Amino acid sequence: MKKFALLLLLPVLFWGCEKTYDSVVNPKQNNTIQVTNIARLDTSSNSTVDSVDYLTSDSVLTFAISFNSTEQIQSVQFNIVSPAGTQLNSSPITLYNDGDLSAHGDASAGDTTFSNKFTMSNSYLSGVYIVKYYVTDIYNSSNYISAQNFVFDNGKNRFAPVLSNLNLPDTVSIGQTFIFSVMAVDSNGYDDIELVYYELYKPDGTKVTNSQGISQFPLFDDGATSTNGDVTANDSTYTVFLTFPSGQPTGSWRFEFQALDRTNLLSNKITQNVELIQ
Fold this sequence. Notes:
Radius of gyration: 25 Å
Structural class: mainly beta
Number of helices: 2
CATH topology of the largest domain: Immunoglobulin-like
Distance between the termini: 64 Å
Number of strands: 16
Helix content: under 10%
Low-confidence stretches: 1-30
CATH class of the largest domain: Mainly Beta
């Protein structure tokens, strides 16, 4: 299989360009547990951005983390977070220091390295995954100690999102709050959709940009009816409401709708004009 390497140690306990591990996990208990290494498995690659490809023959990944000492370590665990921000594992995965290379990928028992395996599925999203490591010490104190990223390619063909079923009034009044929605689907799965948005153009053709410099305004599929007007979460219908305040020019305003997936593929564009009246 194509191996992967450590991409990034998030600055949870570290700082600077070099990989240094000199922070105390639990100073309140006089704890001196320190991370010394997170294994780089792809020793043949010089790239700082390594990736993992899904292979039907072998998509088992081995994660390993090393410490300065094991005297105060009770257990080590990790979670894997997907590009959508969801956790893949239903419960924390324990890493072992038992020398069981076959079961856990651990090369030597009783050393300072804890390891375990995890199998990636082609049903998982392609994109950047975060591995979060935790240590429970002999004082029963559990702490988030470090993290690493890797890029996963599920091997599926990449498909752009598709927009349809736009529901937008053709005429609105200044001061009137109106709700509009559009359906967005993606053949690579619901979670592959990164953003559904609209861009707005004034009657003179000027694109609307807010005070933060944003011109792509999001629609939502979270069921937060009172916040954005969406009735049902995760039904692929993305919704928002809008009010044109007093002082905006009347006439034909152009709405352009589009969706973006996690591999930066853009959907078809749907355009509709709305007549703004007094």
